[in-house]
Design brief:
The structure holds 3 protein chains of 3 kinds.
Chain A (H helix, E strand, L loop, with lengths): L2 E9 L4 H15 L3 E6 L9 E9 L13 E4 L2 H7 L8 E5 L13 E5 L1 H7 L6 H13 L4 H7 L9 H20 L6
Parallel strand pairs in A: 1-4, 4-5, 5-6
Antiparallel strand pairs in A: 1-3, 2-3
Chain B lengths: L4 H7 L21 H15 L6 E5 L7 H4 L3 E4 L5 H11 L4 E7 H7 L1 H9 L5 E6 L34 H8 L3 E6 L3 H13 L4 E6 L3 H7 L5 H11 E3 L16 E8 L5 H13 L4 E2 L2 E2 H30 L1
Parallel strand pairs in B: 1-2, 1-3, 3-4, 4-6, 5-6, 7-8
Antiparallel strand pairs in B: 5-8, 9-10
Helix pairs in contact in B: 2-8, 5-6, 6-7
Chain C lengths: L3 E2 L8 E6 H12 L1 E6 L6 H14 L2 E4 L3 H13 L3 E6 L1 H16 L4 E9 L5 E5 L4 H6 L8 E3 L4 H18 L2 E7 H5 L1 E6 L6 E2 L35 E3 L13 H16 L2 H4 L2 E4 L6 E5 L1 H16 L4 E6 L1 E3 L3 H7 L5 E6 L5 H9 L4 E6 L8 H12 L1
Helix pairs in contact in C: 1-2, 1-6, 3-4, 10-13, 11-12
Classes of the chains: A alpha/beta, B alpha/beta, C alpha/beta.
Chain lengths: ~190, ~325, ~400
Amino acid sequence: MSTQEIRFSGFGGQGIIRCALITGKALSLYDDKFATMTQSFGPEARGSACAAQLVVSDERVLYPYITCPGILLALSQEAYDKYWSELPKGGILIVEQDLVKLSGEHPDLVLMRVPATRFAEELGNRLFTNLVALGFFTAVTKVVTADAMKKALPGLVPDRFLKINIKAFEKGYEYGINALSAGGGAS
Amino acid sequence: MTTDIGKFKHDSPMSGTLRMERMPHIWCPGCGIGSEVNAFAEAIKRSGIDPKKLVVVSGIGCTGRVAGYVDFDSIHTTHGRAIPVATGIKLANPELTVVVFSGEGDLTGIGGNHLIHAARRNMDLVVICNNNFTYGMTGGQVTPTTPHSAIASTTPYGNYEYPFSLPFLVDAAGATYIARWTSMDVRNVTQSIEEALAHKGFSFIEIISPCTTLYLRRNRLGDGVDMLQHYQENTVLKHGCDTRETAIDFQGKIVIGKFVDKVKPTYLEAVDQCCVKLVGDDYQLYGKTIPEREAEEKAEKEKVAARRAAVLAEQTEANE
Amino acid sequence: MKTVPAEPKGVDSGPHFMDGDQAIAEGALAAGCRFFAGYPITPSTETAERFAERAPEVGALFIQMEDELASIAALIGAAWGGRKAMTVTCGPGFSLMVENIGLAAMTETPLVIANVQRGGPSTGLPTLTAQQDMMQARYGSHGDYAIIALSPDSPQECFDITVEAFNLSEFYRVPVIILTDETVGHMHEKVVIPPAEQIQVVPRNNYSGPKEDFRPYKFDCQGGHPMARAGDGYNFHITGLTHDERGYPVMTAEQSKIVVTHLMEKIHGNADKIIRLDEDQIDGADVVVVSYGITSRIAIKAIQDARKEGIKVGSLRLITIWPFCEKRIRELAPKIKAFVVPEINYGQMVLEVERCAGGKCETISVNHCGGAVHDPEVILAAIRKANQ
């Protein structure tokens, strides 16, 4: 991998920006990669839709915006509808299983589904949805290491919720590992 | 008879307060600003505050020149910006006493927004506002306080706008010390400035003053002496007057007195209260904890009181 | 410039993942800035927010003023009150500040202003990037004066340049403007803040000699002249009027010549000491791309592609925008075919490049009306054209 472009998307309140911040911090501080994170600030960022982008590279990132995302994490129907077609053949599409109704089979994409909200609720609060999704994302994309992601959490999640967030991450990660061994996922 | 200017400057009772090398000043005969500066100098002396710790800030205009004449740290700012510059100085070094001395056009016209916000924050400043109903330096245009129907160079057929009543304005905005006098009431002005220097919070002193060259002449109101006569006959002393009743009509009655004098945390005290809750007793501003700053303030207050007592004793002796 | 290590209290050492705006606040705190007055405006507000959050633990003061006019006025007051001071804004707010940038230049008051540029004119594109205020930064206030402006291309450089901005500002007693843009301001990247002892800062140069010898100014076309701090007993007077070295108004053509020459030459006469450029493969180049801020990163992509095509192209990145690197452009012009100047405006710094090139080579503007960065292909096409 020399350069990888990732889009995190969902609706406001799901912690989408946080997902990108955690991943970017993990990569650039603990995985020895270069990562540049951008987000939409326009009036579009004030409504329900929410997206953040990450460019990851082994070398310094020059162009800071994504041009051809290889990975899309879509935690809402709107995000899925809006962004899935950007993915090239072989791109990784990760969707929230209970919130996103697929418009087709996507045979050209690596489709991964995770019931992140349901898992988060089982852990006590749907606020942890993003960390479940990130754990799953980490397992199936292998863009970033789980160790780096966990190291990146302090400062980006409230101290008193650190443990439960790590638990949520691990739940998603484990589900992702199982999904991979069951046959799907990135190679 | 000729006057030895050098000797005159040296012997002047103002030589400790004014930059005598900059005299003579630019103000017209009969203008009220001179007596206001006299009162200011007297108040500084009597207050006992350390002149080294006093900063005077002015904006632009005739009154804006005060900063250039007083022999203290002084800043002559751009038009209207005296209050925010003063805010910056005060917040940069809370030990300083910061006085804004400017005109009503500067403070309430172009600088009006800064005036109300400094009052709202209860910023610990003394604002002395010379109100002569006119933009003097530029030739006598209408200002935010020019009474209805008065003639100005830009209202040649009479002022059709409604003026601000400044005590009411700053009262509504949150000022904690408000007084109004005329430039004839020098003792009251002196006393008010003294009180304001000792007051913690936003103090506003309005001084109604004659602009002989422009306002009086254009409105056919005679000369400076005629206006002092007018003040004597038409001022109404009402301490504690409801500031809603302080409006000034053209050549009408002028309510004077101390209208507001109350205690409320200043901006910096509010910052301290918030930060000490957050950081704890270790909280420091510019490297000093609150108890350290309070101790310094107390020590300075004692010195001020001692100097004040000495000055008053000397004056009493001189009067006997 | 005499420097000392930074005060550890303001330095949040270590690696961070932060945006450019936040890095400016950290740079300011590291440089010893302890006073911030500002007014919220997208896309610069994150700097104010970061400073407000950090102020209590550092022992600094943050105040949100009623507008930008007040913000910069407060900085002037704070500077003479003895503090290093800064504010942050973008186009519409900068337009309000230009009045007292003039006062700060005239009274030789050190302060730092970051302009996180967004698209204009007027309210324009509040959330989208631009580099349209380059000339305003230089010429915004009326009259002849000079300032220093620096442009970072990454959050890391936002930190580094802010420290440098304070150092230059303190030494030359001049407003220093950080001309960044929405893209750099809002992008998050790794920012490494060094240990305090490795950050060199220019301390405030307060006069401490005898009172009778004190002069707030010295019109010698140089920096390094001390200032007085309010409360130290020197009874300084400063004014926006044309003044003598005592600070007293002297409103004559003769005095104006002395003051204006000093204000201009203390910066332009020391341009060689002030200017920092980032050059790459300039020797033997046929084409030199002159760029700054975010555009220089986009340009590198185009330059790399052009080199693959065999074009000899060099890169000249302006870290210092003002004073402009006149001398370097004059040296290069006769040796190359063309300068290519991409910038997110309708063509501003290209005017300076063209002026200094003096017709000795071609100067090609690659302009962009704002709202986005260039497509690297457009810059590549211009390089190809320049090489013909």
